[in-house]
C-alpha cells in the first residue's frame, strides 16, 4: 500500500504514466499487478494504469515492463519500491534497458538513541533477514544475468 500511495502521489506531481507489475504468487487467485491496479482504481480514483501481470520476480518485472514500455516509447522511469529493494531493482531495470530514476519509499531507520538500542530485538532478526535476502538476490542476479 505504501508503494501504491507513493506512486499515486508521484503521478499527481509529474503526470507520468503508471505501470504496476507483478504476477500471481503461488496459491493466489489474483496477480499482484491486478491487486495494485484495483487499489489505485478504488482508493485513488485512477483509471489510466498500465498492467504487467506475467512476472514472478524482480528480474521478470524489469524485463516484461521494459518490453511493454518500449512499445509505448517510454525508456525512462520513476521506479517505486521499498528503499531496501532499490539497488537490486534499479539494476534489474537498467539491465532491461530502461533509464531509472529511483523513487524509494519505506525506509528502515537504525538508531542508537540509548544504551537499550544495543539489546537484540526480534525486529532485528527480520531486518537481518531482509538485508540477507537483498544481498543474495543481488548476487544471484549478478551470477545469472
Which characteristics define this entry?
145 residues, alpha/beta, two-stranded parallel ribbon, 50% helix, 15% strand
Helices and strands in order:
Elements: H1 2-14, E1 18-21, H2 32-44, E2 49-52, H3 58-71, E3 76-82, H4 86-95, E4 99-105, H5 122-144
Parallel strand pairs: 1-2, 3-4
Helix pairs in contact: 3-4
Tell me about this structure.
There is one protein chain. The chain is an alpha/beta fold and 145 residues long. It is built from five helices and four strands; from the N terminus they run αβαβαβαβα. It has helices at 2-14, 32-44, 58-71, 86-95, 122-144, and strands at 18-21, 49-52, 76-82, 99-105. It has a two-stranded parallel ribbon. A two-stranded parallel sheet has the order 3-4. α3 packs across α4 (86-95). The longest helix is centred in the last third of the chain and has 23 residues, at 122-144. The two termini are 30 Å apart. The model has no long low-confidence stretch (mean pLDDT 89).
Give a brief outline of the structure.
The protein is 50% helix and 15% strand. The chain is an alpha/beta fold and 145 residues long.
Please identify the structural class as seen in this structure.
Answer: alpha/beta
Unreliable spans are none
Largest sheet: 2 strands, parallel
Termini separation comes to 30 Å
List how many beta strands DSSP finds.
4
What's the average pLDDT? 89
Strand portion: 15-25%
Helical coverage, percent range: 40-55%
Order of helices and strands: HEHEHEHEH
Give the strand order of the largest sheet, numbering strands 1, 2, ... along the chain: 1-2
Radius of gyration, whole Å? 17 Å
Counting DSSP H or I runs of 4 or more residues, the number of helices is 5
Principal-axis shape equals globular
